[in-house]
Structures are given as structure tokens and as C-alpha cells.
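Moderator note: this is an archived Q&A kept for reference. The question asked for a predicted structure of one protein chain; the sequence and the answer are reproduced below.
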Amino acid sequence: ENIDVTLRVHNADGGVVGNWVAPNRPGGDTVAIFDLPTPGDYRIEVVDGRNDQRSVEPYLLSSSFIASNDGFEPNDSFGTAAPIEADGHHRFTIFPQRDADWLYLDVDHPGELQFAVSQVSPDVDVNVRVYDQDKKVILNWVSPPRMGGDTIGFADLANPGRYFLEIVDGRNDARAIAPMRLETRFISTADQYEPNDTYGHATPITPGGEIAFNILPQRDADWFVLHVAEPGELRVMIDEGPENLDLNYRVWDADKRALGNWTAPLSAGGLTEGFTDLPGPGAYYIEVVDGRNDSRSVEHATLKTIFTATRESREPNNSFAQASEIELEGETLAHILPLRDADWFRLFIPQTGNLSVLIDQVPESLDINIRLHNSEHRSLGNWAGPAAPGGDTNAVFEVKDPGWHWLEVVDGRNDARDAAAFRIRRSFTPSAAE
């Protein structure tokens, strides 16, 4: 009764894992609980509390051990994370106090990782957050509604690869020897082309096909690149979209210049449809986003493309200097595409006379106007045009100086374009004196 038996626990390296525990009074029972964080050898140190008493009478030391049912330990850091399946049920404990459990999983597609922690001790509030393989947080702490409550959440895994879950007690002030249940479920997306969220990582596609894609995670952008051998009209349709997304797209050229503004649907979940004129051969890029970047979905949408090439295009021939050479007499197909396009043609006229030009087979949207220039850039007369859009244009130009001449062809008000071709027919009548 003169001794206050005090004890503490050390690990095999001599480090203290549980500090001194003393009785309420000298001669009283000493009751202690120590958390042993890892398997191994431990030492119990027993002393008189003030080291001022001794007794020949024995004391009784009894011990019992309750194993923690956590097969993942030691896994209390990013570097020691334990592997789990993306779909499965797992048992773990938050033990000892300030314990952190790290787990990792591998996925071969982008998708949505759902998780739920249940069967939680009433003393613990389990918090979860998710990292990518570069230890960048992709989902910050998810907490339960109350102590002992379930913790439920999801994380968007934007790319194939390895992801990490960190699990802790919310305030690091509690622990529980009883195991808890972690359930994980991974929903793969139909998008097989990530990462393609930048201009430089665009996914190659072939005009005329369909491709499934996802806007996931939030603020995701999907880029696609296609190559065309000649100018033409690119039609883009995005359908079967999730109801919470308003999918917008725009088209860029190889110099990263936007060819027009965003094309949007009438409402979220609706069809997005439009066209872009591709002015020449080369690479073109389609950028697809959610209109306000405020939503995401594990459900996919479908991107469709249709490319209509301009037949026998002579592009680029948009200026006097770029004019395409044509025969003095004959037929040539031409297009007004894109909007405000001008087609220039160069032809050699060996003598004086009259050049007759007929433009027919004109799309109904266009009113084709023409004029003739000499080598000094002077116009030989005024513009000639049709009586109405879609009509024929007839013109006769008097040529007084033999040599090279330039024919300029435009839409009358520069307010229309069409992927369909029209025909330019030419004939020449020499002057009577020659």
C-alpha cells in the first residue's frame, strides 16, 4: 500500500509509445490502455511513481491484447500506401490516435470513383480525400454529417493511372480499435482518348466518323484534330449529351486562330450543331467544353463530323497575287467559301477583243459578281452581277491591251457562302480589224 505503481511502454528501439500511467493513490490499481501502432516487440517499464518507496511484497501484473483488424498496416504515408481494388469492400481502422491510412488503386480508363465509409465508431468522424500519382489533391476532404456517421463521396479520375485515398479522423483526436468498412466502386467512362484537354494533346479523328467522349472532371476540355487535303465545309454535331451539360464547340486552325465563335445548343442536354468553313488544306482542331464549366458527367456524348470538300478547288487564290492560272476559253469550277471569300483567276489574252464570261449553276444563296483587271491593277469596267441570288451572271469585257488579265469573283454583298460549286465559262472574240 505504500507504492504507487506507475508504468509506460517502449518499442523495440526504446522509443516511448505510451507515457506514464499512475494509480489514483498509493496502493491503488493502475489501469492503462496503450495503442501499439505496428507488430513487433514492446517493453513495459514499471516503477514506483516517485521512486521513494519499495516493498518486498509482490504486485500482480496482468495484460490482455486486442488485435486491430487492419491488414493494410503499416500504411500511414503516401509512400507506404496499400493497394486495393477499384471495386471492392475493405476493412480498416483508425488506430492508434492520429493514424492516417493511405490506399491506392490503378485504373486504365478515366471515370468516376465512388466511395463510402460505414460501420464507424461513434467517437470518430472519418474524413477522406483523393490524390493523383503526383500527390496533387483532386478531391479535398469529404466529411460525415456527424460523429460516427457514414462518409460518402466521389472523385473524378481524369486519366488512366494511379490514385490515392487518405483516410483520417477529422480532428486527429480519436481512434477506434473496431474495424470500419470502406466500399469503392469505379465507373469507367466511354472516353478512351484522355488526356486530350489541350491543343497540344488533341486526339486525331477522321472526318465523317463518330467518337464518344466525356466532360469529366468539371472544367474538362476535349480537343480533337483532323486533317483535310482541300478546303471545304466541316459540319459538327454533338448529341446524346447528358442532360446537365450544355456542350459547346469551336474550331481552330493550325496557327491556333479560332475560325468563328462558340456554337452552343438551345438548352442543356440538347443537340449542338453547326458548320465551319475550312479555307485550305491542313490540320484543324475542335475544342469541346461545357458551356459554363460548372458541370461534369460520367455519361458520354457523341461527336459526329461531316466534311464536304470543295471540288477542284484552286485555293488559296484569294488575292491578285495568289490568282490561279486558267485558260482563256473553257470552264472552271469555283466556290465562295468561307464567308467573304474572293476567287482570283489569271488568264493570258494574246490580242484585242471581247472576253465573254458566263457564271451559271450558282447556289441559290449566292449572287456572284465579277470584274476584270489588267496587269496594272486597273479594273476594265464595273462589277457585273445577276438579277437575283442564284441567277446567272453574264458579262462582256472589252480588252484593248493584250497580255495577262485577272478575273475577280465574289459574292455580291459578301454575306453568303456555300460549299456547292458554280461554273465559270469563258469565250473570246478577237477584234474585227485583226
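Archived answer notes: DSSP finds no helices and 28 strands in the chain.
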